[in-house]
Amino acid sequence: MAETKKAAKAPPRAKAAAAADEVLPSREEAVTAFSSALVPNLQRVRERVATLAERPPQLLHVEGGELNERVGLALWWAALLNCENVGQCGPKDGSAEVGPCLACPSCLRIGAGLFADLVVLDGREGSIKIDQVRELRPLLGEAPRFGRKRVVIVLEAQSLGIEAANSLLKSLEEPCPDSCFLFTMPQRERLLPTLVSRGWVLTLPWPDPSRPLPDPVRDWALSLAEFVGSGRGWFERTSVKGALDAALAQRIVLAGQKALAERLTGRENSGLGRILGHLPDRLVPATDELFAQCQEALQAQVNPALVMDRMATELYLLTHERA
User: Any residues with CB less than 8 A from the CB of 35 and at least 6 apart, and which?
Assistant: First the structure.
């Protein structure tokens, strides 16, 4: 920690010399961070982002898609704004498009999480606190240290607490010509409307409902389907100490939302989707609202096991309610 503080106070020439002596990560190590943004189905989104980079907005929202795609695109945006030789990026489909080179020192540092002008507030595993935003604000008054733009990425911005969101809103109301913000979220409706109105919104292609769930989430979704169908087995799992954290609970709620989407499209591929297929149409809005309330409770740091027990119990009652 002491070495970090000492380096931060070094004069610009000393910083430049230190950067020159730094051993950079390999291209293979760094590019892994961008790989989820380079898939063919995001090509049009990348083209749109490249156009926006010509006159970058102060705030860009990225919604939809999978979580890893939103994260990858956020880092790709940071690289695009700071690449030392923006040129041809080679996506997996082999087509040529304007993008970061993913090979220069700036791109490599961004991919490895070592870029001085990249700030990440990570809401993937819990609420983003106002203290984290307060620590950021003095930095916004400074010029970028090495890059052309300082990029502030707020991953899963729906995890912003009310105070933190209002503090960020105040920062966005003040001119920050050398700073750009990017927020990721599943849907823009999960943010304060005032925050949404401050930026551009890019919507990634929505996930294919037929795509299999990751193994840990699939196991929990199967247990939930069994409980909703029979009323057995759920509380034995949630009562095990350490079995659930907020991040896993959020993914279980998303599995429920995916199952409800299956019910609405008639493609009930999962066990939970088949269970929710028995829901009367009049109860679909209440089920959707239940999932949204559970997400909000998890973001407010309510005990994940209690939130999951409430969700399972209310799903059981909804699916067994007589028409």
Answer: 72
Q: Is 223 in contact with 233 (CB distance < 8 Å)?
A: yes
For residue 130, count other CB atoms closer than 10 A to its CB. Answer: 17
Say what the pLDDT of residue 110 is: 93
CA distance 239 to 237: 6
Query: How many CB atoms within 10 Å of residue 141?
Result: 10
Which residues fall within 8 angstroms of residue 91, CB to CB, at 6 or more apart?
Answer: 38, 39, 40, 43, 46, 97
| Whole-number pLDDT of residue 218 | 84
Residues in the chain predicted with pLDDT less than 70, given as ranges, are 1-23, 87-96, 207-214, 264-270, 299, 322-323
H or E stretch including 98? strand 97-99
Chain segment 24-61, per-residue pLDDT in tens:
777 777 778 888 899 888 999 999 999 999 999 999 99
Q: How far apart are CA 66 and CA 293, in angstroms?
A: 21
Distance separating alpha carbons of residues 186 and 177, to the nearest angstrom? 28
User: For residue 290, how many other CB atoms are within 10 A of its CB?
Assistant: 19
Residue 215 near residue 262 (C-beta atoms within 8 A): no
Res 205: pLDDT: 85
What is the identity of the amino acid at 317? L
